[in-house]
Amino acid sequence: MDATDIVVRLSGGAGNSNPLNSLGGAMSSTEVTSQSISAPVNVTGVTINRAVNLPPDVALWCRNSGGRQLAWIGPDYLQNKIVVTVDGEYTIYSASGDPADGYMVVTCVVASMPTSSNDTFDYLTVTDQTENIFPDVTSAEAGAGDDEYRCVYVLNDHGSETISSLKLWIGKEYSGEESVSIAVDTNGVGGTAATIVDGDDSTSVLSGLTFVSPITEGTGVEVTTIAAGSWVPIWIKRTVQNPVQTAVANDTFGISIAAYV
């Protein structure tokens, strides 16, 4: 199991792709991603499924020599090169091999990949995703304060390995006058999250949950025994101060996840 096997998805039903509707209910097929990346054109037969911690500009490189050699190139030049010989999903890490230093997950169709023994390149643009959980704070929310909720699912996407312990904590807090907290849905592992009627939970469906804001792995919210292919619903609460004194542009938060097998 590696970092690519831990997948975060929206709630709101299988077909939901709108974070505004991620208000509980069934797990969506849409992943919550931190970055988007432009599609390759010259490096055919390769689809980029996920980009994580990549620099703003990268190049996708391919050469047909002893199998299709594939890598992404960033500021530190050539990263970990992989050799693609069969169709399937592959992960290309940075030179360090540490997921924290960036990686991309790609699907390759060998017969469609470049056949030249010379280098084939695509220069790609990486964009950090915004408003992929909560929308911008409105002037009314800034003036009166606001609590808003979203539900996501953490999926063990490994084919066979069980997660014995999953830890979640606030890895990056808002720098402005907002805060974030998390809670595990009481329906638990493999369950379907409760559904709220609006982002503010005006009917108090979530009143029985305890929201906390741990900032270290050691104090993180823990969920045990998530089998391969199973999941757990997690609620995220954003609290806007009443009133906001100073506006902050492009303010973001991050939730860190650690899985033990």
List the helices and strands and how they pair.
Elements: E1 6-10, E2 35-37, E3 46-52, E4 57-64, E5 68-74, E6 77-78, E7 82-84, E8 88-93, E9 103-108, E10 120-128, H1 139-144, E11 146-156, E12 163-172, E13 178-184, E14 221-226, E15 231-240, E16 254-260
Antiparallel strand pairs: 1-11, 2-10, 3-9, 4-5, 4-10, 5-6, 5-7, 8-9, 11-15, 12-14, 12-16, 13-15
What is the number of domains? 2
Class per helix and strand makeup: mainly beta
Count of alpha/pi helices: 1
Percent in strands: 35-45%
What is the CATH architecture descriptor of the largest domain? Sandwich
What's the overall geometry? globular
Number of strands: 16
CATH class of the largest domain: Mainly Beta
Q: N-to-C SSE series?
A: EEEEEEEEEEHEEEEEE
Mean pLDDT score, rounded?
Answer: 92
Termini distance? 8 Å
Low-pLDDT ranges:
none
**Major β-sheet profile:** 6 strands, antiparallel
Q: What is the CATH T-level topology of the largest domain?
A: Immunoglobulin-like
